[in-house]
TrEMBL record:
Belongs to the FlgI family. This is Flagellar P-ring protein. Keywords: Bacterial flagellum, Cell projection, Cilium, Flagellum, Periplasm, Signal. The lineage of its organism: Bacteria, Pseudomonadati, Pseudomonadota, Alphaproteobacteria, Rhodobacterales. Residues 1-22 form the signal peptide. GO terms for molecular function: structural molecule activity. The gene is flgI. It comes from Sagittula salina.
Length: 370
């Protein structure tokens, strides 16, 4: 099956499904302002590695960290010439502190090597404080790590699968400090749209007012404010938020064509329209082929040598091109896809056609290339 035909079938299915598109929940297109995760970061040591840790010559910060850790544990100062371990690696530990995480709850952490360690498999993370952007410690991480990738090395060959220098610890950090956020004391809540749009914001406000009474208003394309005490739903802020997030609206958005030039993926939105244009696609293919000829000397000869005689063949193939009319304006997405498929284009050629139509001012959509 041609890639252009497959693209046409996919977009045709999207077009047919859009006619019976169901409304989506507000919780799937918006989030409550202030209810968010917080990034945590820390610096620590992974011990117990089987000779795959940092080499102290190339990672002096690992040596300093080992010395500082041993001093805290009561071990005296170690001279530099006696530090030869390769079973320790300096790592950065990151985690996401979820909203309303309470003291004593656990969160997952990600451990990534900071030095020249080749693998963290089999290691154990030593107690590592995790701090937020304000410098406060919010969690402490420790425990055996789990590595998804692996590395194997011999004298003349090596094999690496995945990234063995990055690992995870499930429930590896314990929350020690809470983020102060008094939800019940709020007099109003704000909804932040993940894709700001005036039409979607207005529909959200109308849906909230219709279901809960007056109290919702649009502040900007990405924000809808709801007066908690102005709506008809009693029970406080959490009950109001629970009622709001399950309401359904029909989201809107700008017409957009997204192109991934590396993989040849093209996604065309439902509202994309083009003016009536004529498109011609053709090209010239030049093929150069090398078939060297090996000339051997006679069986009985003195001073004979094998000679490689170059032989090159060049061919030119010209593809027949013709114009095709692409209808647009008020025509459906299915008609646009059918017109593109009628030319018999590959994904790369379709990308070039769409870029040329946009440059001509006939494509009424945002063209985004990623």
């Amino acid at each position: 099956m041609r890639l252009s035909t497959l693209l046409g079938l996919l977009l045709a299915a999207v077009c047919l499904a859009s006619t019976a598109r169901a409304d989506v929940r507000i919780k799937d297109i918006a989030s409550f302002e202030g209810v968010r995760e917080n990034q945590l970061v820390g610096y620590g040591l992974v011990v117990g590695l089987n000779g795959t840790g940092d080499s102290l010559r190339n990672a002096p910060f690992t040596e300093k960290s080992i010395e500082a850790m041993l001093e805290r544990l009561g071990v005296g100062n170690l001279s530099e010439d006696r530090m030869r371990t390769t079973n320790t690696a300096a790592v950065m530990v990151t985690a996401m502190l979820p909203p309303f995480a309470r003291m004593g709850s656990t969160i997952d952490v990600v451990v990534a090597s900071l030095g020249d360690a080749t693998s963290l498999r089999g290691g154990t993370l030593i107690v590592t404080p995790l701090t937020g952007a304000n410098g406060e410690v919010y969690a402490v991480a420790q425990g055996p790590i789990a590595v998804a990738g692996y590395a194997a090395q011999g004298v003349a060959a090596s094999l690496v699968e995945g990234v063995p220098t990055v690992a995870r610890i499930e429930n590896g950090a314990t929350v020690e400090n809470e983020v102060n956020f008094d939800l019940a004391a709020l007099e109003s809540v704000r909804l932040s749209l993940r894709n700001p749009d005036y039409t979607t914001a207005a529909r959200m406000a109308d849906a909230i007012n219709a279901a809960l009474g007056t109290g919702a208003r649009v502040l900007d394309p990405g924000t809808v404010e709801v007066d908690v005490y102005g709506v008809g739903k009693g029970g406080g802020v959490p009950q109001v938020m629970a009622a709001i997030e399950n309401l359904r609206v029909d989201p809107d958005g700008v017409a957009r064509v997204v192109i991934d030039a590396r993989s040849g993926t093209i996604v065309i939105g439902e509202d994309v329209r083009i003016d009536r244009v004529a498109v011609s696609q053709g090209g010239l293919t030049v093929m150069v082929r090398e078939d060297p000829l090996v000339s051997q000397p006679e069986e009985i000869s003195i001073g004979g040598a094998t000679v490689v005689v170059p032989r090159t063949s060049v061919g030119v193939e010209e593809q027949e091109s013709h114009f095709t009319i692409l209808e647009g304006a008020d025509v459906s997405l299915q008609r646009l896809v059918d017109a593109l498929n009628a030319i018999g284009l590959t994904a790369t050629q379709t990308i070039s056609i769409l870029q040329a139509i946009k440059a001509a001012g006939a494509l009424h959509a945002d063209l985004e290339i990623i």
